[in-house]
UniProtKB/TrEMBL annotation:
Its main location: nucleus. Its EC number is 2.7.7.49. It catalyses: DNA(n) + a 2'-deoxyribonucleoside 5'-triphosphate = DNA(n+1) + diphosphate. GO terms for molecular function: metal ion binding; telomerase activity; telomerase RNA binding; telomeric DNA binding. It comes from Noccaea caerulescens (Alpine penny-cress). This is Telomerase reverse transcriptase. GO terms for biological process: telomere maintenance via telomerase. Belongs to the reverse transcriptase family. Telomerase subfamily. GO terms for cellular component: chromosome, telomeric region; telomerase catalytic core complex. Telomerase is a ribonucleoprotein enzyme essential for the replication of chromosome termini in most eukaryotes. It elongates telomeres. It is a reverse transcriptase that adds simple sequence repeats to chromosome ends by copying a template sequence within the RNA component of the enzyme.
Amino acid sequence: KESGCDCQNVICARYDKYDQTSPILELLSSSSWELLLKRVGADFMVYLLQHTSIFLPFLGRKHQQVSGPPLCIKQMETLTVHDNKRK
């Protein structure tokens, strides 16, 4: 693929078909996610996991994407913002 991503949703990333597990599925199996499922219902939960990018804290100040289309960034561009002052 052009983007360099190997799946359509990060939930499938590093999924082990034999063990039927993945690091992301383990994160999404916590009691907090069970509570959210109970409150919003299965249909809305599926929608959230398929169509929104959700990030969880990971190793201090970093975050890991756990759902949605992968945000693959090959190279970050630096944008310069010029200070336009009115005269």
